[in-house]
Amino acid sequence: MKKIYLAGPDVFLSDSIEQGQRKKELCQKYGFEGLYPLDNEIEDTFEHKADMGLHIAQANEKLIQECDAVIANLTPFRGTSADVGTVYEIGLAKGLNKMVLGYSNDGRNFLQRNLDELTGVRQQPNASYIDKENMALEDFDLVDNLMIDGGVHYPIIKNEVYQTGERFRDLEAFEACLMRLANHA
Amino acid sequence: MKKIYLAGPDVFLSDSIEQGQRKKELCQKYGFEGLYPLDNEIEDTFEHKADMGLHIAQANEKLIQECDAVIANLTPFRGTSADVGTVYEIGLAKGLNKMVLGYSNDGRNFLQRNLDELTGVRQQPNASYIDKENMALEDFDLVDNLMIDGGVHYPIIKNEVYQTGERFRDLEAFEACLMRLANHA
User: Fold this and answer.
1) In a domain? residue B135
2) Which pLDDT belongs to residue B185?
3) Radius of gyration of chain B from Cα atoms?
4) Nearby residues of B47 by Cβ (< 8 Å), 6 or more positions away
5) In total, how many domains does chain B have?
6) Using CB atoms, which residue from B49, B84, B87 is nearest to A141?
């Protein structure tokens, strides 16, 4: 049975363990085994906090090495881009030659989110945009930073989820990734 | 001569090309060849913007495949974490078994930045913190998300750069990474 690493900021949810369970059950429905990050399941027996953090990172990297594919929750997290931990994981998976899929529960493209949410953005005479630190805004009609759109093996599946509390929990687009993977396998 | 891929949001600076030149010259000083991302050097001959973005991503992935090491500018970008494009690249490099080093021109740890910059953070009875969407704040005394600190081969080099305009340009911590790499090689 193919193993799928379930990357995403889901690990930060108050019901993170249950969210992992829901994702694992959906994986089973399509004949896959879901591997959920170990952020919340490692016992705190470390003298220094940092050692525990690095241990979790190592444990997650090991799960990614074991998997056949990654499905990443790329819903923008605390800003206009996907969670950086998740993004590191899809980069790692790509380098390890795993299949990488992603979904986002935000329907806007990257430029639109930046225009909606950053303060101090200005348009220049050549029509391009810069932020308050005079740094360019990407304008490629993509879902996120071009390295993310370019990194995944299929276009990122978008779903507009309006309910705040459900933004990171909704699994319709996640299930669409599973279907795509099942058709590919 | 060893090749170093120069990852970072430096590509979004108004003087991005010159910043790349400065980094390449510092690489030479230590006997390395610097490879700078091609975001600003690919000719726009594409019918659709998205195709150009994906082409840049592919060209950067190719440069990372060619390099021996990556030095990543992990200075927080438009939020409390490193630029996601940069983070994807260090993940990819790690998966491809390249040496990965990083620096940040922000001296704070990740929890402190989140406490300073996120709105609506609350402390819970068990002393942990949650954000306005009830999602946990990482508290591991690390520089960024644990996957980033866990991903680099040496602890991220921090330098406190106070001048706003210099935050992404200052190269002292970058040069410290070069020295570390030169000693390692």
Assistant:
1) no
2) 63
3) 17
4) none
5) 1
6) B49
